[in-house]
Write a structure and sequence with these properties.
mainly beta; 8-stranded mixed beta sheet; elongated
């Protein structure tokens, strides 16, 4: 599903993406492309492709030009941060650690080769949120409704990107985060057993700030599909106080 593909001329092909879909057709020297997008809350368990399919008559068609035999449906993470609302109350004692998985929606682009993009789309629509004291000084982010459990549509959806998050409390007080900001920029995306996964995201809560660390995946069975943006060692996130974290304005 996440491998380069050689389409035949004049045939429509479809990727089924847990309720969303991506279509492509090669027409001599050009390409026709369409995307079906859905709200993140409307996921289903349908996954598969590329497969031949009827024309997507109810969707807008994108026409793109480019030479090449192979085409690749390439997943990567949004450039903007995510605000993750906790699905259950967390309490992390000083010196303790909490681990969980979260399903992050990707951006998908059709590429002929790296850097030669035909079209791209966000198949799962999200609400946007201002993260910060107000809409003038805050940062606009994508809002995820909650962390998925082990048996939810989001946790089963292989078109979403599975990310392990590790929260470590290095303060002297009990940590009870209601929401956290996740910057996906440094995270690489891999395919492992036909599942999209990232590096481990480690967030250390300090007395005065938050520190981000990336736990590099060492599984030899996984294939890199999108490299994260590397930051200088020891980069520190600006700490968002708990008062600011509670100031969330949905738009």
């Amino acid at each position: 599903m996440w491998h380069p593909f050689v389409p035949k001329n004049a045939e429509w092909y479809r990727w089924r993406l847990n309720g969303a879909a991506a279509y492509i057709r090669r027409d001599r020297d050009s390409w026709q492309i369409a995307f079906r997008t859905i709200p993140l809350g409307e996921l289903d368990d349908e996954i598969g492709g590329p497969e031949t399919a009827p024309p997507p008559e109810d969707l807008p068609i994108i026409r793109a030009w480019g030479d090449g035999e192979k085409v690749f449906l390439h997943p990567y993470l949004y450039g903007k941060s995510y605000i993750l609302a906790m699905g259950e109350k967390l309490r992390i004692s000083p010196g303790q650690q909490c681990r969980f998985n979260v399903a992050l929606p990707p951006v998908l682009k059709f590429e002929l080769e790296p850097g030669r993009v035909l079209a791209e789309e966000t198949p799962f629509t999200l609400s946007k949120t201002f993260f910060g004291p107000d809409t003038m000084h805050g940062e606009i982010c994508h809002s995820l409704p909650a962390f998925p459990g082990d048996d939810t549509a989001a946790s089963r959806a292989t078109a979403l990107i599975r990310c392990e998050v590790v929260l470590t409390n290095k303060t002297r007080t009990m940590l009870e985060p209601e929401r956290i900001e996740v910057n996906p920029g440094p995270l690489s995306v891999y395919v492992r057993d036909d599942r999209l996964v990232t590096d481990t995201l480690e967030i250390e809560f300090m007395e005065a700030d938050c520190r981000l660390k990336i736990g590099k995946a060492k599984n030899r069975e996984q294939r890199l599909v999108s490299a994260g943006v590397k930051y200088k060692a020891g980069e520190t996130f600006a700490r968002k106080s708990m008062d600011i974290i509670k100031d969330i304005t949905a738009i």
